[in-house]
Design a protein that fits this description.
With about 160 residues, the protein is of the alpha+beta class. It has helices spanning about 25-30, 35-40, 130-135, 140-159; strands at about 1-5, 10-20, 45-50, 60-65, 70-80, 85-90, 95, 100, 105-115, 115-125.
Length: about 160
């Protein structure tokens, strides 16, 4: 497994790796609620609920529970869905593209076949330097990297 931290846009954070499972399994992990509940939040946090309406304008909602038992509800919508290849979602808009009044990020997740599995890339766009810095301080690279490790481990258990 390799990992690259690259710079896209000025306010973006990027996690890119080659993982040793096929794109179909990475896709299934991201788009099937039962799978997502198993890996989405880095332990000891947990994802305790999620809603997925896999279409542009459809809801993408997760509820993450802290180790102290505090729930964090994160709702947004998909902007783009290319089956097996790409997901784009944001918290700036809710289902049906309704503005939420809260915007922290837009995520672009891509899955490309690689000779050893999947080239996985997550680009997270922020509206300003402060939000990017806040996300870095929240542990973006470690957290999203740990979640990806959990995704791979979960999907390998199923095969």
């Amino acid at each position: 497994m390799s990992e690259a931290m690259t710079e896209e846009g000025k306010f973006d954070l990027v996690l890119e790796r080659i993982v040793d499972i096929p794109p179909s399994l990475v896709w299934a992990a991201w788009t099937t609620p039962a799978h997502l509940l198993e890996w989405f939040t880095p332990a000891p946090w947990k994802t305790v609920d999620c809603e997925i309406d896999l279409k542009a304008g459809g809801i993408f909602r997760t509820v993450m529970r802290s180790p102290e038992g505090v729930d964090h509800d994160n709702a947004g919508c998909y902007l783009e869905v290319i089956p097996g290849k790409k997901l784009v979602f944001t918290d700036a808009l809710g289902p049906g593209f309704r503005p939420t009044g809260n915007s922290f990020m837009t995520a672009i997740i891509t899955f490309e076949p690689h000779e050893t599995g999947t080239r996985y890339k997550a680009v997270v766009l922020h509206k300003n330097a402060e939000d990017k810095q806040k996300h870095m301080e929240m542990g973006f690279h470690q957290g999203w990297g740990t979640a990806l490790d959990q995704l791979v481990a979960h999907m390998k258990k199923l095969n």
